[in-house]
Amino acid sequence: MVCIAAFIILALIGGVVAIVSIFKPKVGKSYWKMFKKAWGCLWKKVRLQKCETGFKDDVKNTLLSRVIVKHPKWVKPLSVIIEILSVVIVIIAVWAILTAIKSLLALWALGSCNVTKPSACSLGAEVCSIDESEPQNPIEATGRWFTEWGEIFEAIPDKFKTYKAEDYNFNYINIDEEASDEKPIAVDIFDPGCSVCMISYRNQKASGFFDKYNTRLVPFAIQDTDGNYKFKNSDIIVRYMFAVEQLYSGRAIKLLDHIFTEKNEDGVSYQNLFNDEYSRDDAIKQLEKWLNQDGLNEGEIKEVRVVAGYPEIVDKMSENKNIVENELRVKGIPTMIYDGGRHTGLYKAE
Asked: What is the pLDDT of residue 13?
């Protein structure tokens, strides 16, 4: 282990030594000589051959040369410590390499270098992430580490898959009361509380995406594994959207327009108000106020309120959750399916 640990350390300090050797060539020569020995030893280890014992002794003698003269009794315990530190260095190096490989594979296969908490990965697409709860103890953390490898390998075939929007039995809302069969079908999964979804929706409207595709909008309230909602009032908004769609097909989109495109008299986005200020009762009052403005009378609004509380609405949300998280293995939204592909992240206007 000493020779492997020495190779790792020498590889890490190689850049610094290269700069120092410009001014002190002897340092560079000594380093290169030691590095070649370390590499030779490592290569033999890889081929399951015995390493030269002389190199191991050289390393120890170099580290213990001053101790031998002044404190000869310390040599044996320090030698043991060097062996232990060598094992620790090798374990840390192997773990770091595996973690780097896992992160790169996850970024390619899932769109985020952090499988459990996509929001912690700055390299992924611009999304509102679907995070899992943090492990509570080392055993859970170890189990999660191996589980993440499984998720990555399961997702790799998805990179080569052709997606068809009509293959997924989502519960959705229509943009138009009468959807055209002539246009290709697209699926757009969003959370009413997600700011990226809001910008993406605006970009889709501005670029004519909804004119080009028969888009099925899938309202999805992000939850963690403990059942907590990422955005405070997303679930009640989704309930009302499904209730309105069930009773008055094609009209639920108006609620989304209010939330994603409008501001109150103080210039505050309604999405921010729902996320940060409105209580559940305030959210319901605002939604019902919009329904009234959009042409529903008190009796019709009451019917919407009743339907929004039905277990069937909860079932629709659960069915969508299963498709999003288990069938599609989505780690962040907005996620769209169109033109044979799955596209996660902000839709940019053409």
From this structure: 46
333 CB-side CA count, 13 A:
29
Looking at the chain, the number of H-run helices and the number of E-run strands are 14, 7
Structure tokens at 7: 């190779």
> What contacts 312, CB < 8 A, 6 or more positions away?
none
Pair 242, 308: CB distance under 8 Å:
yes
Predicted local distance difference test score (pLDDT) of residue 2: 47
CA 196 to each of CA 129, 190, 235, 332: distance values in angstroms, whole numbers, following the listed order: 10, 9, 17, 10
Report residue 311 as tokens.
Answer: 């277990």
* CA gap 125, 343 in Å, rounded: 10
Query: 235 or 18: which carries more pLDDT confidence?
Result: 235
Average pLDDT over residues 89-102: 74
- Do 61 and 4 touch, CB atoms closer than 8 A? no
pTM, full prediction: 0.73
Q: Are strands 214-219 and 185-190 parallel, antiparallel or unpaired?
A: parallel
| Other Cβ atoms within 10 Å of 258 Cβ, number | 18
d(CA 119, CA 317): 23
d(CA 192, CA 231): 8
Q: Which helix (H) or strand (E) holds 11?
A: helix 2-12
Which residues are CB-contacts of 253 (< 8 A; sequence separation ≥ 6)? 173, 174, 175, 217
What does the block give as tokens for 133? 């709860």
DSSP annotation of 13: T
Q: Delineate the domains of the chain, giving CATH numbers in brackets.
A: 2-94 (no CATH), 163-344 (3.40.30.10)
SS3 329: coil
DSSP character at residue 74 = G
